[in-house]
């Protein structure tokens, strides 16, 4: 092998470190956080779903088994194929000891886990990876998980985000569209950049396995159907869906079709690159009278319709000589 591993990490599905073993002392636990940030950034890009991530001089190689990420971090030019094979052998060894490799089995067997990691890798180089050989000299009792045999997902048509057998006396669905407007204005009062960041938040209380459909006034769909798009269509950018959405159906006819999770979740997030009229126009004048006295004049003018209401407005005033000031 050309290079050695600096550390081996076990992470849960939220990126938190369950167990990690430092072999060479040239990385820290913060590397796991950086790795997971990079992983989240590449989550929506199918072309970048590779098991090797490079960032700031550190190469990360990882695999996922059940609800656990196994990840190595190395500052040397290591053999990626050998390390990925080693991670799969780690899974086989842990399954031999614990019956199944999951977050729960790691938490219940910290002592055995560290003994195995010390024997399977020495100073960053793989050593023993045969479970039978390791069993001859690591005889610490391990808590073995009880694995329940389940039929394949294709047979039951189950979905991981929703349990079966949910029942409600009254079926209800609540949909909220939450948008935030970001506007950058120069000193002359001209709008340099504006966009809208939005999210479709849902609360579902439905029985069984319901299939929901949602349509949008998306410009791409309306133009494909030969319908007019004047004033009613929008261009959605940076769309991100919940895992329950059937992406193939959306690519086909721009219909959001999904079996929703039970309770609250974000169905989708999006961004609109469009010229937005500020809801509240703010003009500020600053006059410095002396070294100990400064005068701010802030004028705010609402530009939304009369039937709309604003409950809380917050203005932040910044000055290099004075601390931050809040005005409600």
From TrEMBL:
Keywords: Cytoplasmic vesicle, Membrane, Protein transport, Transport. Residues 170-328 form the MHD domain. Adaptor protein complex 1 (AP-1) is a heterotetramer composed of two large adaptins (gamma-type subunit and beta-type subunit), a medium adaptin (mu-type subunit) and a small adaptin (sigma-type subunit). Coiled coil: none annotated. One of its GO terms (cellular component) is clathrin-coated vesicle membrane. Signal peptide: none annotated. One of its GO terms (biological process) is intracellular protein transport. It holds the Pfam family Clat_adaptor_s. PROSITE patterns: CLAT_ADAPTOR_M_1, CLAT_ADAPTOR_M_2, MHD. Belongs to the adaptor complexes medium subunit family. This is MHD domain-containing protein. PANTHER family: AP COMPLEX SUBUNIT MU. InterPro entries: Adaptor_comp_med_subunit, AP2_Mu_C_sf, AP_mu_sigma_su, Clathrin_mu, Clathrin_mu_CS, Longin-like_dom_sf, MHD. The keyword Transport applies. The keyword Repeat does not apply. It is found in: Cytoplasmic vesicle, Clathrin-coated vesicle membrane.
């Amino acid at each position: 092998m050309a290079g050695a591993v600096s550390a081996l990490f076990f992470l849960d599905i939220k990126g938190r470190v369950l167990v990690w073993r430092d072999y060479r002392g040239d990385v820290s636990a913060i590397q796991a956080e950086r790795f997971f940030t990079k992983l989240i950034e590449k989550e929506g890009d199918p072309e970048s779903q590779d098991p090797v991530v490079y960032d700031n001089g550190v190469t990360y190689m990882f695999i996922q088994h059940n609800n656990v990420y196994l990840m190595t971090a190395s500052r040397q030019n290591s053999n990626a194929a050998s390390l990925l094979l080693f991670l799969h052998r780690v899974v086989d060894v842990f399954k031999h000891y614990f019956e199944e490799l999951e977050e729960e089995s790691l938490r219940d067997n910290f002592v055995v886990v560290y003994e195995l990691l010390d024997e399977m890798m020495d100073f960053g180089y793989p050593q023993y990876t045969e479970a039978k050989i390791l069993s001859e000299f690591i005889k610490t009792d391990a808590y073995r998980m009880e694995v329940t045999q389940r039929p394949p997902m294709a047979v039951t048509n189950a979905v991981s985000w929703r349990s079966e057998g949910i029942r409600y006396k009254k079926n209800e669905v609540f949909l909220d569209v939450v948008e935030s407007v970001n506007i950058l204005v120069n000193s002359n009062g001209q709008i340099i950049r504006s966009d809208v960041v939005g999210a479709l938040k849902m609360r579902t209380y439905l029985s069984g396995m319901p299939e929901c459909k949602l349509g949008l006034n998306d410009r791409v769909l309306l133009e494909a159907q030969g319908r007019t798009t004047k004033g009613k269509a929008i261009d959605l950018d940076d769309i991100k869906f919940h895992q329950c959405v059937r992406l193939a159906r959306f690519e086909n006819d721009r219909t959001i079709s999904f079996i929703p999770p039970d309770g609250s979740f974000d169905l989708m997030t999006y961004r609109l690159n469009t010229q937005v009229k500020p809801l509240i126009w703010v003009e500020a004048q600053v006059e410095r009278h002396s070294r100990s006295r400064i005068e701010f004049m802030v004028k705010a003018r609402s530009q939304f319709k009369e039937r709309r209401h604003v409950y809380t407005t917050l203005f932040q005033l910044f000055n290099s000589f004075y601390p931050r000031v809040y005005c409600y």
